[in-house]
Structures are given as C-alpha cells and as structure tokens.
Write a structure and sequence with these properties.
alpha+beta, 18 strands, binds adenosine-5'-diphosphate
Length: 529
Amino acid sequence: MTRLLADSETLRAAMPGILAAFCESLGLACGARWSMDATAGGFRCEEAWGTDDPRIAAFLAESRRSIYQPGHVGFIRRVLGTGQPTWITDLAADESFLRGEQAAKAGLRSAFALPIRLGEQVLGAMEFFHREKRPPDEWLLETGVALGNRIGLFVARREAERELRESEARFRSLTALSSDWYWEQDEQFRLTFISSMLGERTGLDATSYIGRKRWDQPALNLTEGDWDRHRAQLERHEPFSDFEMERTGPDGNSVWLSISGGPVFDEGGYFRGYRGVGTDITERKRAQAVLRAAYDELARSNSELQQFAYVASHDLQEPLRMIGSYTQLLERRYLDKLDQDAREFMGFIVDGATRMKQLIEDLLAYSRVGMRGRELTPVQAQVALDRALLNLRAAIESSGAAITRDSLPEVNADDTQLVQLLQNLIANAIKFRKKEEPPRVHVGVEDAGSEWRFSVADNGIGIEPQYFERIFMVFQRLHTRDEYSGTGIGLAICKKVVERHRGRIWVESAPGKGSTFYFTLSKVQKGQT
Ligand code: ADP
C-alpha cells in the first residue's frame, strides 16, 4: 500500500488499489472512500471497491448516488464529525445507518469506518463491510487508523508539492514577464543564481558573477568605503534597496544596475544568504546626467548674464558721468561763444546723457533683484505697504489719488523687495491715470489655498489684451516719453521679484476701464514664525 501511494500522482489514482488490497487481504466484502464535496454541499463517495458480486455492485452504486449533509448523526458523518473510527456490529439493528435496506440486499451485516486525518484535521473517511456480524476488532481498527493517517500524509504531501509547483510557475512567469532580474547569494555572500534577464537587459555575463561576491568585480561609481558600508550592511543581515552600481558592459559602455535584496533565514532562524532583484537603470542615469548638465549650464549662463548686466551697467556709469560733467563744463565756459544750433545740440547731449543715466540705474536695480536678494522671512505686508505709500507720498498728494486697502496678511518675503513691488505697482496705477478723473487705487488680498493672491486695482487708462505679456519685459513700454515718463523697467522688476518668491504675476485690464495687477505669495507655514 505504501508503494501504491508513492507511485500515484493523486489520491484518486491511488485509492482503488488501496481499497482493493485492504479488502482482499482482510477478507472484507467491499469498501469506499468518502470526502467533503464543497460544490455538492455534502459528503460523497469518491471511490469504491467490492468483491465480484452484482448485489454488492448495486450497493456501491447506491452509495455513489448518496450525498450526506454535514452533521454528527449517521455512520460516515460520525467519523467525519468526530475524527474517530466507528464500528457497527449489526447493520440491521443500527438506525443511524441509512443504507440499511440496500446493505441487507447485498448481504452485508457489519461495518466499520475510519477517518483519513492529517493531525487534527479530518480530510475524509473510509468504510468497510463484512458479510458476517462481527464485534469490534481492536487490531483491525488500529491498522485502519494507521492507514488513514498515512493517506492523510500522502494528501498533505501531494498538496504541498502542487503548491510548490504552482508557486514556481508563478515565479517563473513573473521573472519572464518582468524586465528586472532575480538573484540569490549564499551565506558567504557569493552569488549562486542570477536569472537570465540580467544578460538580456544589460549584456553583462551572469556566469562571470556566479560564485563571486558583488565586490569582487569593480563598480566605477563605488569607492572602497562604499563597498565596506555595503558589506557591513550584509553582515548585519539587513535588507537593502536601490544599491546602485556602474559596471562596464560588453561594448565598453557603462551599465547602471540598481539592486535590492533581503536576508534569507531557514526554519531554524539561521541566516542562509540573500535574495533580491536587480533593475537596469542605465537609461535613467543617462537622462539624469543630461538633465544635470543642462541645469548646470543654465545656472552658469544665468549667473554670467546677471554678472554681465551688473558689470556693464555699473561700468557704463563712469564714462557717462564724464560726458555729463564735460558737457556741463562746455556749457558753463563756452555758452556765449556758441550759436543757436550748437546750443540746441548741447541740449540734446545733456538730455541723452540724463536718459541713459536713468536707463543704467534701472538696469542696475533690475540685476540687483536676483543678486542681492535676501532670505525670505515672515513679513507683515501691511508694514511693507505703509513704507511703499510713504515713498510715494509726493505722487499721491500731487495727483490727489485715493488709496484704499484690505487688511494685509503676513507673507514669506524679502521685505525690501516687497516694498519695491507694491511701490512700482501703485506708482504705475497713479501714473497711468485718466486725465479727467483723480486716480483711485485699491490694494486687496484673497486667500488662495497655500498662497495669498494680492491685487492692485486702478481706474486708469487700462491696457489692451495683446500687451498683457509684453509689459512685463525689460524696457517694454506702450507710450512715448512725452506722454508718460519712465523707462519700462518697473514691471520687469516686479516680475523678477515675484518669481524670486516663487509666485506668479499677471494683469487683467481693458482700455478705458482700469487695470488690476495680481501677484501671489506663499503663506507663512505654521510654526515658522
Ligand atoms: P514704465 O512705467 O517705466 O513705463 P513699467 O514696466 O512699469 O514701465 O510698465 C510697462 C508698461 O506697462 C507701461 O509703459 C504702461 O504702458 C503699461 N502699464 C503699466 N502699469 C499700468 C497701469 N496701471 N495702467 C495702464 N498701463 C500700465
């Protein structure tokens, strides 16, 4: 019977032989195995064997048709319910035996049933029949119970094997479908297995790593110290993730690998090595390097430009001052010797020099926004507005402007630049007023989630939509100097200040209807003050 079990793939295949051998060797008339059938919702007869007798065949056929609901009454159900063997000395006298009539017709007089168990778990039951009335036979029951236990073990083992096969199949399809590879290391950290995807993805030869430690071969990005740290981590049996190695590929190019792994312990809790996965991150690294280079280049050219604007405007001041002072000298000493034309030309030179001075000063102010910016700290916007209005007192008084305001919050800002920002916007609101009415300016603020949205609204001449972007560029103006004074740097400075604060600035306006300039500033985080 042990051989029968060993040779069979399934219990279903082994059972007919086992039932036959058990019955024949002990002179039993017939036997069957029962188990729970979840789809049928009850216990059913799975396999049966009987001596060559049509009446017994009929009895077994009846058994196969029967399905018993779970419960503690009944012959088979008692065994399945309690996990204990049962003996019926006289079938005709036992009420709990439901197939009594058919058994009598088949000449069956007594019976016993045995559990098929795996530890405490009852997997099924076997029943056997005698032609004679027989009292319980302890030896027979013991032999039967031992057989039941062995069948239970067989079922458990086959089940475990099936699960193992399934999990291996799952693992295989997982590694086949994934673009990552799987690896294993022994307790000495020697690689014992690497799945084929390593070679397919990177061109690296997996066999050259087998039997060796990760640090036996060079990685271009790692120093001795890096390897020591990695090794120490493994020696502490810690999991690790995204360990990056730059190896040299077959074509001499760099291949970047990212490795993650975890320690493996056996049932005894003994360390058995590591297992984990690897990913080819060459593309990502390449993209990162390109991005990094572009960023560095941008930062470099930006600061160069900033420096250039500053130096140029700073150094231009000196020759300009010279032009100014010598024209003044000319004027003072030779004015009476010059004719009308020459005086007019002198006037143009002075005017040009004055304008150029203004332009240079504006350019300097513009380039200073980025260069001399201070740390952003919590600032009371109310205070910044007060200072801006104080600086604009003359313009406000002479124009008769009415300035109103919301109560302003605390913001993250460079306070000098915030004053400059508000001042430029309010100055424009006053400057670009309508001739026929005095300017009205409102400084407002709205809560926009993580930031505040400020607004400076006027009742001035307004702006055509096609200029909404252009007016924020350096030296871009919509009017001649005769109409409105200025160089066109004010809004460019506002934009630079706001962007330095990681905010946005824009305008909404219609010609003749006034303009509203908006800008955002981030809120002060709780606990920051
Ligand atoms: P400037 O004031 O020196 O001309 P700005 O950069 O401050 O330079 O403004 C650029 C242009 O945007 C101005 O010349 C003007 O045409 C337009 N502008 C700015 N603010 C307003 C406003 N409040 N109302 C109407 N137009 C404005």
